[in-house]
Amino acid sequence: MNTTSLQVQRQGNAWVGLIICLIFIAAIGGAGYAVLNKTGSSVDPDALITQTARRGPFDHIVLEQGEVESSSNTEIVCEVKSRGSGGTAILWVIEEGTKVKKGEKLVELDAAELDLNLKEQKIQVITAESRLATAEAKLEQAKIARQEYLEGVYKTDEKEILSEKARAEQALRKARLESQSSERLVAKGLLNALTLEANQFAVADAQNQLDVADSKLRVLQNLTKQKMLVQFDSDIEAAEAGLSAARSELMEETTELAEIEEQITKCIMYAPADGVVVHANRYSSRGGNAEFVVEAGSTVRERQEIIRLPDPSLMQVKCKVNESRITLIREGMAARISIDAIPGMKLTGRVIKVNRYAEPGSFFSSSIKEYATIIEIIDPPENIRTGMTATVQIFVEQLDDALQIPIEGLYEHGSDMFTLVMKGPDQFETFKVGIQATNDKMASISEGLADEDVVVLNLRDHLDLMKLPEIVREDNSGMRDLATAAPTGSAGGRPGAGGGRPGAGGGRPGAGGGRPSAGGGRPGAGGGRSAAGGGSGGGGRPSPSAIADMTMSRNDKDGDGTLSADEIKAIDSNFRSMITDADADSDGSVTKAELTKAMTKRMSGGSGR
Questions:
Q1: For the chain, how are helix, strand and coil distributed in percent, rounded to 5?
Q2: Which residues share a beta bridge with 437?
Q3: Mean of all residue pLDDT scores within the chain
Q4: Same structural domain, 341 and 452
Q5: Which DSSP string do the residues of 210-273 spell out, in sequence order?
Q6: What is the mean pLDDT of residues 106-110?
Q7: pLDDT digits (tens, 9 = 90+) for 146-199
Q8: Are residues 167 and 140 in the same domain?
Q9: What is the domain range of residue 142?
Q10: Strand order from edge to edge, sheet including 268-270
Q11: Cβ 309 vs Cβ 107: under 8 Å
């Protein structure tokens, strides 16, 4: 055998050995994989928590916590008026929770300032009484002065003038007689002419004196008397006005005095009825800190509530329901109430009020909306008190025969609920289920499970056993299609209507050309085409068919595949004309084919765009 033959034989033996080794390694690896695979697929039965789905009565409830209160409260409020910027201090207040009888003392307020005001007011009343007496005297004096003038001064002046007139008349008669006698004597030559002239002057003087007296009498009777009466009447009216003012002042001061005395009596408050004392403490809605605490030293304002005396026969629970569950609750629904402070007590009630507006939010829960709900307690026992914490179960719906499982057996994936059913040892199957109703422990299943199915409850520990579908992301391409197809009223002047805004079909990352979630670059999402299938690179225009589909799905309310005249009328005016133009046969309605044809023509330039 030559050397070449030996080398070939050696190489052949080496290859055979290598192949045998590889086969041996592969056998060992396969056996190990089988063992490992069998070990990984097995589940420890002790690690599983399961329960069988069964049918039976099911109560759909809303569980909330609230506070016991009375629907009828006798409120004790501060009736002492605030003087100045502050209020009135509390000197003493009865302890909260005390049972009181009608007429018992509840609160005593500080009356020191009122006592001082009372003393000052008494002085004001005495001063007003003095002013009233002075005003009455002035009025009497004014009336007497008028009577004095009419019956005294006026008559005296009148008689004096009459006497003066009488004297003037007598002097006039005497002067006339002397003048006549002088005329006769002068005619006989017994008396000279100068004496006659003097007697004639005497007659004229006497006549003047008589005229003056007449004039005085007329002035006195017609003018002076009226003038004096006007003055006296004016003085009387002024005195009467002063008297009225003094009386009003005295009345006001007396009323103020009586009010201060009444305010002093109101500083001590008594129970108007029997009841249990509840302090009207007020807390801040922003953090629960007390804004006002009823205690000695606290200051209260006028009309501020201090104490409540609830009626124990009319009790209710006020709870705040989250906005996610408030739509389930209606007035008249039955409720079961548990009092946390009294274990084992179960009370019945009914919903009597559901507020339509949310409660004011606090600093820590400004984004959480809650609605106050009032539950009346039927036949409340005497040992429950206001302020106690209560747990309320509101029965929204009661099913006589419902398939139900514990809520721990549900797993939320995307927008759907799933459960894991054990079919046998190491055999599990994932089911999508429909939820009819839930309560704090159980869920009523409408579809997806059958009676006697064994469901796994500790799903979080065995998610590897579940086969969940891939979550389908919501297609938001219609928003981009809508922006592209929206008419602008011009051929291309508004940015974003197909003429210039980045992101409406050609430039902004995130509108289809660069955002990973829009189909523009995410691995496994289509590579680079637009979600509407309108071009390469994710920036193409939507297809006319896609726009027609979107328009029909949004506006075809009755689902007959045609937009009727009423449905077209309900469309926004900006789009209505475009859809109306698509009515090729002018029958008043638009089909999907007509709309697709019109959009094809519009997007190809047939409409001038």
A1: 45, 25, 35
A2: 444
A3: 81
A4: yes
A5: HHHHHHHHHHIIIIIHHHHHHHHHHHHHHHHHHHHHHHHHHHHHHHHHHHHHHHHHHTEEE-SS
A6: 95
A7: 999 999 999 999 999 999 999 999 999 998 998 888 888 878 877 787 888 888
A8: yes
A9: 113-266
A10: 268-270, 105-109, 88-93, 299-300
A11: no
* Per-residue CA distances from 170 to 72, 215, 423 (Å): 103, 17, 158
**Can you tell me the distance from the alpha carbon of 597 to that of 588, in angstroms, rounded to the nearest whole number?**
17
For the CA atoms of 313, 318, 319, 321, the dihedral, rounded to the nearest 10 degrees, stands at 120
pTM of the model: 0.50
Low-confidence winner among 440-444, 520-524, 574-578 (lowest mean pLDDT) = 520-524
| 457 and 537 assigned to the same domain | no
The residue behind tokens 């959480």 is 368
325 and 369: one domain?
A: yes
Q: Per DSSP, what are the bridge partners of residue 351?
A: 375
Contact 475, 531 (CB under 8 A): yes
Residues 461-485: pLDDT tens digits?
A: 888 888 888 887 777 767 766 766 6
Nearest Cα residue to 463 out of 430, 423, 498: 430
- The whole-number pLDDT of residue 385 equals 85
**Which residues 6+ apart lie within 8 Å of 331 measured at CB?**
351, 352, 353, 354
pLDDT at 487: 57
Q: Could you tell me the two tokens for 51?
A: 């329960």
